[in-house]
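FORM 12-B: Structure-to-Sequence Request
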């Protein structure tokens, strides 16, 4: 079993009016389970927003599952 977190900053190639700014901040939390040394399955929550740097800040949240392979 493992858990991971991440954060980042990025720029949109084309501004999305819903997010209100080209500058975006991202946060991610991942929970996973190693099936073998090479394969794992995980669930994640990922959030994008402009962190209130613009008047409009509706943000996006993603929830998902994944299968990963380590080389």
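FORM 12-B RESPONSE
SEQUENCE OUT:
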């Amino acid at each position: 079993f493992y858990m991971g977190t991440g954060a980042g900053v990025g720029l949109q190639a084309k501004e999305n009016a819903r997010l209100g700014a080209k500058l975006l901040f991202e946060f991610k939390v991942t929970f996973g389970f190693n099936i073998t040394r090479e394969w794992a399955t995980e669930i994640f929550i990922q959030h994008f927003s402009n962190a209130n740097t613009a008047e409009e800040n509706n943000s996006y949240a993603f929830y998902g599952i994944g299968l990963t392979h380590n080389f």
